[in-house]
């Protein structure tokens, strides 16, 4: 039995502004679907904030902190077994202050207490169960605790009673444990500090090749991916491998081969929803045959981009580009159909003041649940499972039996005793593909009639930034302008709802604020973390390169400026801007920086990538140097833990390539569109694209144009469009034909 889902400021009022000392359960007004799921528990839950910790200090009791997320299966299990139990709730309420946190809403809280949990218990995952001093320091923790003792795992009631006894009888030891852990975490934060001043060393190409060799030692060449079970999509690492494969070196082919095996294995497995598209969070088996069924926006946005980039690279015999394009297209369709929030769902102001009409996707929800509620019971993956008899009922005896063989649905199930997800495990031959294309709509219709998993409708700024980048590139590469339009509407939602510009009349040093979460069109809770700012900047700059709309460049510039002031004001980079004193105390009163990727790129790595892209478009030496100083984290990570440094490696690959800067100028029309499309199809690592206004009017200097890369770049003497290819704002002779452009790009890749 798997005991937990595996791990690889708000103010005291909470989101509703109505939490009061002595109140019972205070979660009903929260923007988080996960918190609202617990609003009817008999446990007197409070949101994370000063009020809850102050109440614990007033009562002189410890805090019980429970962290999870809406799509988490084992969070639902522990909630049903313990948090819905009146006797357990009575004991918890009498002896603790109970705080519930959505890790997706407060990743700063999650990261700090995950580190504490791993240090204390040697394990990590969700639900996370942490016991805290009233000032936020942790002294005991674990993950899932069952209602009755199990071998090697006490019951939740036993844990509560033991913590209560220690608090009352051995308080000095509890205090010492908390202080020792906080000091240790402070030392870890100090070791990861990044100074953004000074002249960084250039990227070492040999270091990137060595990272590929180290990755090869942990690759699973038979089933794809890295390591054994549980196996997660290595999205940031895939981006690095694809970028590395685009540049000639002795490790380019091994990088391409690893990327091909992993992309193919995931797409041909139960991890990928063979009926409706989209990827599950991870697989509990080595061969990707049994997924953990929650489907997350951040996974699918990253994987969509990875498959699109594989298409740009040209694919190979192991995993052809055409097959990857189909997976990318179906993933994008699933994102829009299943996670897309239309005008009404996104809030009351949607469709007004130039917003999208009702029915058009303008932002993306966070996830679909792992569980489906059937007859009042939470059943993991129930929507997605099939028995052989069910296939026969829908498709008839011949097609049903053939599909059962093709999708490995047998009499003995892989999830329940009789049911399995659809898992081809290999590439279909031509006849099998014809069969599947014919029957898939019928199976999808039958599945759609079943109870469906719940959706967490909160909008997370950073994850929507990932979606903007992925959809914009997918639209450009796959020739699907509707995806670009969805990316633009999402960017407009982020601007309208999440971005709070500096106050008018400010002194120029006050940053704007990017709010992390919104629900029903209303921004709620804390300001964004470093990752939110970085992902949004990357998405907006990508969208600018696809559309040429300077609106997105200007917004990216404003958000990046705010990020520099908020997270690097004193020359030292941090992940958060001190939203909660309790998190600060838990880290030994040191601001933190996490250099390692998790399910998404680390904030530091994503920020380095955003800085590098912006520097390439703007010519800013300061931002280029800041990116280089963050990349100074890379040398020890590249050789010791490259699986946890994929985005930093990908950014370093872009820095090594320049990145190449492309300025597209001249009048709009088919000729310019062909040049622009050729750039969109280029696999040059980190390539940035600036597109002149449709008028094609030459602008003489940087001050007269929003995008400095375009300044002084003019159309050809005969008025036709052309492209300037540059590095560091120093450009080669412009080219006016697609053939010459591709030849020049190939030459610059070396």
Tell me what you see in this structure.
The protein has a five-stranded mixed sheet, sandwiched between helices. Strands 18, 19, 20 and 21 form a four-stranded antiparallel sheet that branches. The relative contact order is 0.10. Helix 22 (about 605-620) runs antiparallel to helix 23. It is built from 27 helices and 26 strands. Strand 23 (about 660-665), helix 26 and strand 24 (about 690) form a beta-alpha-beta unit. It is α+β, with helices and mostly antiparallel strands and about 750 residues long. The protein starts with a strand and ends with a helix.
SS class:
alpha+beta
Give helix % range.
Answer: 40-55%
Helical stretch count? 27
The CA-CA distance between the termini, in Å, is 50 Å
Q: Over all CA atoms, what is the radius of gyration? A: 26 Å
- Major β-sheet, in short? 5 strands, mixed
Question: Given the C-alpha coordinates, what overall shape results?
Answer: globular
The amount of beta strand, in percent, is 5-15%
The strand order across the widest sheet is 2-4-3-6-7
Number of strands: 26
Spans where pLDDT lies below 50 across 5 or more residues: 1-22, 350-356, 695-703
Q: Which SSEs are present, and which pair or pack?
A:
Layout: E1 5-6, H1 33-37, E2 46-47, H2 50-59, E3 63-68, H3 73-83, H4 86-95, E4 97-102, H5 107-121, E5 125-126, E6 128-132, E7 138-142, H6 156-169, H7 171-191, E8 194-195, H8 205-218, H9 235-245, H10 252-267, E9 282-283, E10 291-292, E11 295-296, H11 297-313, H12 321-339, E12 340-341, H13 343-346, E13 363-364, E14 367-368, E15 371-374, E16 377-380, H14 388-395, H15 397-406, H16 430-448, E17 455-456, E18 459-460, H17 461-477, H18 481-498, E19 499-500, E20 513-519, E21 522-527, H19 530-547, H20 550-567, E22 572-573, H21 581-586, H22 603-618, H23 621-631, H24 634-640, H25 646-657, E23 661-665, H26 670-680, E24 688-691, E25 722-727, E26 730-731, H27 738-749
Parallel strand pairs: 2-4, 3-4, 23-24
Antiparallel strand pairs: 1-5, 3-6, 6-7, 8-22, 9-10, 11-14, 12-13, 14-17, 15-16, 18-20, 19-20, 20-21, 23-25, 25-26
Helix pairs in contact: 8-10, 8-24, 9-10, 9-11, 9-25, 11-12, 11-17, 14-15, 17-18, 17-19, 18-19, 19-20, 19-22, 22-23, 22-25
